[in-house]
Amino acid sequence: MTTTTASTCCYCGVGCGVLIEHDDEHIIGVKGDPAHPANYGRLCSKGATLHLTGDLTARALYPELRLGKGLARSHTDWDTAMGHAAQVFGQTIAEHGPDSVAFYISGQLLTEDYYAFNKLARALVATNNIDSNSRLCMSSAVVGYKRSLGADAPPCSYEDIEQSDCLLIVGSNMAYAHPVLFRRLEQAKADKPDMRIIVVDPRRTDTCDIADMHLAVQPGTDVALFHGILHILMWEGWLDRRFIDEHTGGFDELKTLVRDYTPEMVSGICGIRQDDLQSVARMIGTAPSFLSLWCMGLNQSSAGSAKNSALINLHLATGQIGKPGSGPFSLTGQPNAMGGRETGSLSNLLPGHRETANAAHRDEVAEYWGVDSLPGNVGLSAVELFEGVRQGKIKALWIACTNPAQSMPDQTLIHEALAACPFVVVQEAFATTETCHYADLLLPAASWGEKAGSVTNSERRISRVRSAVAAPGEARPDWAIVCDLATRLEAQLRPGQPSLFDFDSPQALFDEYRGLTAGRDLDYSSLSYALIDELGPQQWPFDASKQKGTARLYADNRFPTDDGRARFIAESYLPHKEQRDARFPLTLNTGRLRDQWHGMSRTGTAAQLFGHVEQAQISLHPDDLRSRHLVDGQLVQVKSRRGELILPVLADEQIRPGQAYIPMHWGNRFLKGLGVNVLTQPLFDPLSKQPELKQAGINVKPVVFP
Ligand code: SF4
C-alpha cells in the first residue's frame, strides 16, 4: 500500500517541504508539499528526482574495518566496529590529550546529529576540535551578521522577496543554487514590473535573465563595489540620516574611508562602467525597500567577512532593514548549515549562539550539561584541522556526512593528510566518496527518507525531517552512531558517572538541545516536535505566548549589541593575493550546476540529472580559446600553483576574457585529477576562517599526446 510522509528536501538551504510517496520498503515518488511555506508545492529538478537517487550499489551498507594501513577493509559487525573506534579514540586521548583527536562534520546532518556530536566533543572528549563543512559555506556570513548586527541571525524571510522593490543579488546564481526561491523571484518580478533586480557576478549566469542590471565585476572586488555605491549614496544624499544617528554607530569612520572610493576609482578596480555604478546606486538609494541576497560568491573568500560587512553597511546607511522587503539576507548553501550554527558546530561556537572564547557562555553550557567545565582553547577550523592532521598533531579523525577529499581547497595536501592520519573513521551513507577511500573504519549511515530529526532553512524556519522507509543493510541514523561512540567512551573517560548520552530518539536530543536556546536571540526553547507537527514549520525566535515564529528581525530598530545599535564596519578593499601573472594568466571561478549537488554522491546516481550538463568542463571566453589555438571540446591541461587537471574546454560568451569557470561537482571518480579543488588555495579569511574556493590563478594549455 502506498503511504505519504511529509518531510524536507535534503539538498539546499531553501528547505522545501516534500511529500514522500512510499510503500513499506521503497520510496516511489516525491512531490512538493503545498502546505510548506518555503516552497508551496514547488520543487526543482534535484528535489523532484530524490526518489531516483536510491541506488543501493552506491551505499555503505555494513561496517568495514581495516586492521592496518595498506590492507583492504573487511566487513565487520557494529559491536566490533564501535568497540574498535572507542578503543582507538580513548587510547589516543589518553596518550596524546583531547586535542589529538578531531571531528569534521556536515551541514547535511540534522540538528539532533549536530547536537550529539557537539556534546561528545566538548563535554566528553573536552576538545574544541570540531568543525563542519559549514565553514566552507556560511562562516563569513556568521561574522558579517555578528559584527554588524550583534547576532548570527539573517533578519529576513522569503516573503520579503515578493515585497521588495529593489533586489541586489551578489555572488549567487540563484537560478541554479536556490531554484525554488528563484521561481518565487521570477513570479514576483512578473507581478510587479517596477521591481528592480541587480545581479553582481563576474559571469553572466542564468540568474541574470531577470536582471535590470548585471554588473560583471572583476572577481574579488566586491568590497570596492559596495564602498563605491555608498560613496554615491552619500554624495547624492540618499542616506537615512535619522536611522544612522539613532540606531547605528561607526558611521563617521566609514564615511572617511569611502570618500576615496570615487566612481572613477571603483569602475577601474571592478572593471565596470561609471554610468552603471551610478544607475545601481540610484536604484538602491531611491527604492522604497531594498533587499540583498548573497551566497558563496561573497562567503567563499579570503576577504569574506569584509565583503559581508561592506554589504550590510549599505542597509544600515539607507535604513533598509527590519521592514517589509528590506534587509541583508544570506542564502544558505546546505540544508542545515543554519542548524549547525545554532547548535555550535563550528570550532569557535557553542550551542545556542554562544562562543567558546566566552567564559560565561562555557559555564552556562557546562552547567546545563552537568559537567565541571568546557575547554576554552581555540579549536581548529576546517583548513587548520586538516593541516593539523598533515602535521601529525591530529592522530584520530572522525568525518561524518561530508567529503573533504573533494571539497576542501588544495586537494593534494588534503589527500596527503588523510593518507598519513593514523586512524580515520568515515560515517557515511554513500561508499563512493573520495574520502571513503581513506577510511580505516567505514560506518554506514542512514540517509534522506530513512532518518528523522529537524533542519533550519535560510529564513530561520525549523522543519521536521521524517523517515519513510528503513535504512538499507545495517545503516544506522547518525545520532545513534554518535551516542554509541559516546557511551563507549564514557566508560573510559567518565567511569562510574551517569551517562551524558542517555538518548533513545532524535526527539530526546531535540528536547534537551532546545533548552539551550532559552533566553538567547534564537530562543525556540518552547518549540517541541508536537508543536511543529501542529502548527507547521516555524521561524525562530519562537514566541511561546503567541505560539508563533518571527518573520522579521529588528522591526523595532534595536539590535542585540551592548548599546542596542548596529555597527558600521570600515575596512578597505584589498586586492586578492593571487593576481593574474604571466605564468597563470587566467582567473578561475568555481560554482554549481543546476542539476548536481556537492560531490554528486547522491545526484550522481540518477542518469536524468546528467541531461543538463554531461561532464565537467572548463569554460573560457572564445577570445581566450583563439589566442591559445584551442577549439571547443578539446582536452586541455589546467594548471595552478598547486595542481593540475585535464578537462575538455568549452567556448562560453558568458565569461569575460581572462576568466575561467569549472563546476565544483566532479571529483576523481570522474576526472583525471582530484577535481577542481586540486587547483584552489588554502587561504582563508582571517576572521571567519572560510577558505578561498572561488578564485585562483591558472594556466590552460592543450594536452599533448605522446
Ligand atoms: Fe530541494 Fe533546494 Fe530544490 Fe528546494 S530548491 S527542492 S530544497 S534542492
From TrEMBL:
A GO molecular function term, named singly, is: oxidoreductase activity
- Which cellular component terms (GO) are annotated to the entry? membrane; oxidoreductase complex
- Cofactor(s) needed: [4Fe-4S] cluster; Mo-bis(molybdopterin guanine dinucleotide)
Q: Which GO terms describe its biological process?
A: cellular respiration; nitrate assimilation
Which keywords fit this entry according to its UniProt record? 4Fe-4S, Iron, Iron-sulfur, Metal-binding, Molybdenum, Nitrate assimilation, Oxidoreductase
**Would you say which domain of life the source belongs to?**
Bacteria
* Boundaries of every 4Fe-4S Mo/W bis-MGD-type domain copy: 2-58
The UniProt family comment states:
Belongs to the prokaryotic molybdopterin-containing oxidoreductase family. NasA/NapA/NarB subfamily.
Question: Which named protein is this?
Answer: Nitrate reductase
In terms of the whole protein, what range is present? Answer: 1 to 706 of 899
